[in-house]
Description:
Belongs to the SufE family. This is SufE family protein. By secondary structure, the chain is mainly α. It is built from 7 helices and 3 strands.
Amino acid sequence: xxxxxxxAQLADIREDFLALEQPDRLQLLLEFSNELPELPERYRDHxxxxxxxxxxxxxxxxxxxxxxxxxxxxxxxxxxxxxxTRGFASILVQGLDGLTPEQVLAVPDDYPQxxxxxxxxxxxxxxGMSALLAxxxxxxxxxxxx
Length: 146
C-alpha cells in the first residue's frame, strides 16, 4: 500500500485496528457499525439513488455525492443485524468523507486488507468491503469525469 495516497483519517482508522489484538479488533468493528451515520433527510425517501453492493452478504446500499465545493460524501445503509457489513460501510463513510474526488480515487484498493481483519472475518466479508470501496470510486468517476 502506498502510504502517500492514504488520507489521514483512513490511516488513523487502520492504526486503531492494528494497535489491537484480534478479538478487540472485532469489538472496534462493532463500534464502527453503531456509528454508521443516518442518511441525510434529502436522501431518505430516494432509495432509487442508491446502488446495492451485491458482493456484500448483507443488503448494503451506497450513494456518492460530490458537492459544489468538490468534496466527497459517501452515504450507506445496512441493516443493524449485519454489524460486520455496517462496520465496513461506516469505516469508509467516516474515512472518506470530506476528501476530494482525487484523494478518494488515490486510496489504495487493498485498504480493506490492510486494517488487520483478514484473520478475524471471512475473505468473503473482506471482499465485500473491497467492493464498497470500488463502487465508491466508480461512482466518483461517473459524477466527476475523472
